[in-house]
Amino acid sequence: xxxxxxxxxxxxxxxxxxxxxxxxxxxxxxxxxxxxxxxxxxxxxxxxxxxxxxxxxxxxxxxxxxxxxxxxxxxxxxxxxxxxxxxxxxxxxxxxxxxxxxxxxxxxxxxxxxxxxxxxxxxxxxxxxxxxxxxxxxxxxxxxxxxxxxxxxxxxxxxxxxxxxxxxxxxxxxxxxxxxxxxxxxxxxxxxxxxxxxxxxxxxxxxxxxxxxxxxxxxxxxxxxxxxxxxxxxxxxxxxxxxxxxxxxxxxxxxxxxxxxxxxxxxxxxxxxxxxxxxxxxxxx
Length: 285
Description:
By secondary structure, this protein is an alpha+beta fold. The protein is built from 8 helices and 7 strands, in the order αβαββαβαββααααβ.
């Protein structure tokens, strides 16, 4: 227990853009956050510049300078992810939790960015800053950034003239993390679970109504399992945040529906031909 590990990590190679592995690590981290345990006052920001920094090192220096200012403002925690605008200029999405809950705190976060990026034209109207309203606000932030894969246009390539990109996401401060729950299921149970999740998403979108963006969510929910790739369709995951209690109840329904009824083999075992197929893994966060 305790102690210092003797393992020497291999030197990290140069990061030259988003990769499937980087997207998976980022998504797993986002899904591992215990949203109800988040303390402080959260702000979701999109920070941009007019002119592209000449190198990834220059962009990284801007990010470090801004985060240092955020730290001095008393930030409890922060998360950032770098993506590309259609014109090939980097921008950054961030979540920052402060002790100060005043409206001026959000404006100060934006002003700090504009100060460190003044030579690159960080205009006031090009930045956005919105409150993260409790666990629901974090989940809205999560759903936006966890849904983007490596093929999303904002994660393609890198700015012209850059030989590498540097790190594309990160976090700091104290984040409450929960370990995912993993359950072994057969393929039939996995398919049943996906359909139940789709039904839950459709019902949730309908309940939120048009004012809560429900109609767009409803469209996405209905199409969540559709794909023209038959091989992908067979193993496509849920890729949707679900409250743990809801996910567990859906899994219990799946397991209950899969139980053989009315006939058993020796010692109460399922009769021949009713054994589960090759198990899959269903994770809930």
